[in-house]
Amino acid sequence: MRVALFITCYNDTLFPETGKAVVQVLERLGHTVEFPAGQTCCGQMHWNTGYEEEALPLVARFVEQFEHAEAVVVPSSSCVAMMRDHYPLAAARIAREGGDQTLVERVAALLPRVWEFTEFLTKKLELTDVGAYYPHRVTYHASCHGLRNLGLGDGPEKLLKAVSGLELVEIERKEQCCGFGGTFAVKNADVSGAMLEEKLQAVLKTGAEECTACDNSCLMHMGGGLHRMRAGVGTIHIAEILAGEDTRAK
Amino acid sequence: MSSAREEILARIRQACSGDAESAAASYAEITRQYQQAAKLSREEILGLLTERLIEYDAHVYRARETEIAALCRELFARRGAKRIVVPGDLPGAWQSGAEFVADEDLDARELDRFDGVMTAATLAIAETGTIVLQNAHAQGRRAISLVPDYHLCVVREQDVVETVVEGMRLLEATRHLPTTLFSGPSATADIEMTRIKGVHGPRFVDIVILGA
Amino acid sequence: MSETELDPRVAPSFPKAAKASLRDAQLRANVRRATDTIQAKRHKLVEEKKDWQELRESARQIRAHVLEHLRVYLEEFERNFTRAGGHVHWARNDREAQEIVVAIAKEAGADEVIKIKSMTTEEIHLNDALEAAGIHAYETDLAELIIQLGHDRPSHIVVPALHKNRAQIREIFLREMHLTELGENPADLAEAARKFLREKFLRVQTAVSGANFLIAETGGVCIVESEGNGRMCLTLPETLISVVGIEKVIPRFADLEVFLQVLARSATGERMNPYNSIWSGVTPGDGPRNMHVVLLDNARTAVLADSEGRQTLQCIRCAACLNACPVYRQTGGHAYGSVYAGPIGAILTPQLMEMQHGESLPYASSLCGACYEVCPVKINIPEVLIHLRNKVVAQKGWYAPEALAMKAMASVFRSERRFRAAQRLARMAQLPLARRDLPIVGQDAPTGQDSGSGWVKWLPGIFGGWTQTRDLRAIPRESFREWWESRLT
Question: Hey, which residues 121-160 in chain C have their CB within 8 Å of chain B?
Answer without folding.
Answer: 140-143, 146, 159
